[in-house]
Amino acid sequence: MRHISFRLKPGELLKESIERVVAENGILAGCVLSLVGSLDVTVLRMADATAGNQPVKKWHEPMEIVSGTGTVSTNGCHIHVSVADKNGVVHGGHLKDGCVVKFTVEASLLIFEDTQFIREFDAETGFSELRVSQD
Question: How far apart are CA 73 and CA 75, in angstroms?
Answer without folding.
Answer: 5
